[in-house]
Write a structure and sequence with these properties.
Blueprint lengths: L2 H8 L2 E10 L3 H12 L8 E4 L41 H15 L10 E6 L5 E5 L3 E9 L21 E4 L13 E5 L3 H10 L5 E6 L5 E2 L5 H16 L8 H4 L1 E2 L2 H8 L5 E3 L3 E3 L2 E3 L5 E3 L2 E4 L24 E2 L2 E2 L2 E6 L8 H26 L9 E2 L2
Parallel strand pairs: 1-2, 1-5, 5-18, 6-15, 7-8, 7-15, 8-11, 9-10
Antiparallel strand pairs: 1-19, 3-4, 4-5, 12-13, 13-14, 16-17, 17-18
């Protein structure tokens, strides 16, 4: 941060922009693309802030054994296809390089690494965005922070007594580290089944535990089925409930690898245990299993704590949306949240959010006589 900006922040002023985009994953880059396409300039009219050290969104943190060929449904960003990718390369490398090229091609000027600590009410009808880089006063906010930073760790009695290793999907290193170990995988989603099938090739033994009986989906999954699944997730968001993942309502695709694993007994599921012991897990009916590792493939929650000062949550615990707009504050749009968490959904949400933001900016400009892109520093309290 240069001396001028440091002095400006010290006297309680902030850099004024029309739009702040938080997050440079699929949804954030899509929003930035559409902002630029409609005539707004990065670093003048809008800024894109990303806390990650490099391009790639959450993909850059994926485990090395998740190659690009194993990725399901990676949809291209708007305006630039991903072509010629080697399916044997790690997805973190392929998609990281793609996002990097995308940012440079469209001149999106993503600021990183920047941590957004809070978004709160500012002066003059603007939102005050407090970050590790600067303080911004913005007319509108597009939040695209995803879920990767909030891994969900369930809590069970005795968890602190376990003498083995516990880790979450967010820290999964690949199967090699589990060679010769007895491993328990918790979770019935796509990540859990992928981890389990990989680890089973090298581990001494594996066990699979889920809260509900897994549902395997036969046949194709077309556009109509996708729309129906997204509609179920969207209904929760409209009711102000925390969103569920799209895969939670679609089931798991029954492919050749899944069929082979089921035939070998790798995917023989156990019901959820009741407690954790120093050497493993136990059920109230007297059963127990001794393991060296518990791998929690239990998903993620929306990373939206920085929005807490705006009080956007409903009594049900989620943020109620109309499209991408927060019902409690029309200046705030959430993309990559709930029904737009898929890659194709993120693209559509980015476009929809920008349309809503532009309508707001035009209305604000008509009311106060200022134009979009007014860059004068304004006090934010």
């Amino acid at each position: 941060m240069n001396d001028f900006v440091r002095e400006e922040a010290a006297v309680g002023e902030a850099r004024a922009v029309d739009v702040v985009v938080i997050g440079a994953g699929q949804a954030g880059l899509s929003a930035a693309f559409h902002l630029r396409r409609t005539g707004l300039e990065p670093d003048r009219d809008f800024v894109v802030l990303d806390h990650a050290p490099r391009p790639g969104g959450a993909w850059q943190f994926r485990w090395p054994s998740l190659t690009y060929g194993k990725v399901h449904g990676m949809h291209a960003l708007p305006g630039m296809e991903l072509t010629g990718a080697d399916p044997s390369r790690p997805s973190s490398e392929v998609i990281g390089a793609y996002f990097d090229a995308y940012e440079r091609t469209f001149g999106l000027r993503v600021h990183r690494p920047v941590d957004v600590t809070a978004v709160r009410e500012g002066e003059g009808g603007r939102l005050r965005v407090e970050t590790s880089e600067d303080v911004y006063a913005t007319r509108a906010l597009i939040n695209a922070t995803g879920t990767w930073d909030r891994p969900f760790w369930p809590r069970y009695p005795g968890q602190e007594t376990f003498r083995g290793r516990q880790l979450h999907t967010a820290g999964y290193p690949g199967p090699e580290e589990f060679a010769g170990a007895r491993v328990l995988v918790v979770g019935g989603g796509a990540s859990g089944t992928q981890h389990l099938m990989e680890i089973a090739e090298v581990a001494a033994d594996t066990f699979w535990v889920t809260r509900r009986e897994p549902v395997f989906r036969e046949g194709t999954f077309g556009e109509a089925e996708g729309r129906a699944a997204v509609a179920l997730v969207e209904e929760r968001v409209r009711r102000g409930l925390p969103p569920r993942s799209v895969v939670s309502v679609t089931g798991l695709p029954l492919n050749d690898a899944i069929r082979a694993a089921r035939a070998r007994g790798i995917l023989d599921r156990l019901p959820m245990f009741d407690r954790i012991t120093p050497t493993g897990v136990a059920w109230d009916d007297g059963r127990s299993v001794d393991v060296d590792v518990i791998l929690w493939a239990t998903g993620f929650r929306a990373a939206i704590d920085h929005l807490a000062p705006l009080r956007l949550r409903e009594p049900g615990g989620g943020i109620r949306l109309e499209g991408t707009r927060a019902v409690r504050d029309e200046r705030v749009h959430l993309v990559g949240y709930g029904p737009s968490a898929s890659t194709i959904g993120a693209n559509r949400a980015g476009r929809a959010a920008v349309s809503g933001v532009r309508r707001l900016l035009r209305r604000e400009g008509d009311r106060d006589g200022t134009r979009e892109g007014d860059r004068a520093a304004v006090p934010t309290g």
